[in-house]
Structure formats: structure tokens, C-alpha cells
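Narrative of activities, Objective 1.

The group set out to show that a structural description can be obtained from nothing but a protein's sequence at a throughput compatible with the screening campaign. Below is one input-output pair from the validation batch, recorded exactly as produced.
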Amino acid sequence: MIAGLATLAYLILPNVVVPAFSFNKPNGRFNYTWQRFSTDAWTDPCGVAGLCGSLVLSLQLAVWATLGATVLGTLIAFVRARHRFRARGAVGSLVFLPLAMPEVVMAASPATLFLNVGVERLPHFRPDFTPSPPPAAHAPRHPR
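Output recorded for this entry:
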């Protein structure tokens, strides 16, 4: 449980530090150490050259990507629901891949942490990552 909480803290910590440091007034260009409290970043968000232009471009790209994905996804859904074809399973796998990818990335982050702190093997998993048999307390009883 402690390892799980430590992993969760490791994953959430950047989401706490970045907003906190947005209220920092650094002496130079780098914002690594706390200097003094300031709301300059929030009172003039477009003060940095190109920041608002980048935000507008990102939002435009997001809208176009959403529209394209909606049209493409709807067409693929119609084809998969109404027709049988040879590559139907492969198309289903390709559709599922973006849904599964965030879990793979989230699993890679704690794996990196555990390997860096020296945990080579988790106690209830085999090296090939198949679940180990249940503990003896849960083992089936032998017939008498």
C-alpha cells in the first residue's frame, strides 16, 4: 500500500508543483527555486511573446482533430457494424489502440520509478508478469 501511495504521489506531484510555481517571481529565466509570491503570470497571461498565438493554434488543431476523429470513427463504426470483411479484427484492434495507450504510458512511469529505486521484481508477480498462484491460505483443500 505504501508503494502504491508513493507511486500515486510521484504521478500527481507535477500537477501540484506547476500551478504552485506559477505564483513565483523568479530572479532569472528559470523557475526552479521559490523566490517571492507574485500574480504576474495570471494578470498578464499574454505577456510572453507567442503564448496566446500558440494557445489559439492548439485550440484550432484540437477542434479539427476532434471533427476528423468524429467523422472517421462514425464511418468505421458503420462499416464494422454492417459488413463482414477479412480485416475486421485488425480494424477493431486499431480502434482500441488509442484507448489502451494511456494505460501503457501510466504503467511505464511507475516501472521506471521502481527500477530506479532498485525494485526488480514485485512480490506477487512472476518475471513473465503472469499472476502468481494464490497464497496457501486460499489454496483449495485436498480431498480426504
